[in-house]
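Quick one:
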Amino acid sequence: MFKRRITQGISIVVSFTTCFIFQSPVFGQTRITFPRGSYCGSYEGPSRVYILGLQAGQIFEVQNIDQQVEYYGFEVIEKSTGLKLPIVSLGEFDTHIETRIPSTGDYIVRASSDHWSYYAVRFCAYTPN
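Output:
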């Protein structure tokens, strides 16, 4: 079991070159961190709850990039306060959303779907000019 878990973790990190991914089996949350110099990353897999460290003032976008599945949306929650952030929908059914980050810290992103167990998601965080 331990060997299997290590192998799964290695395959996840190797298969995603645009971001680093750390899955917490205890909480079922996947930590997303972007490589230095990058402002976007993606995830494909079974997790539907993600944690990202974001900076105050950033514009944060989340998008469903699975072309086979169009019907899941997202919500963004400030981890320390539990505050659900207001979002602007950039796509049908909230499949592409953006929000402005009010304060530096960890944020939880939840993909919402009653029918899917596999997710393909792109995350971008950037400071507007």
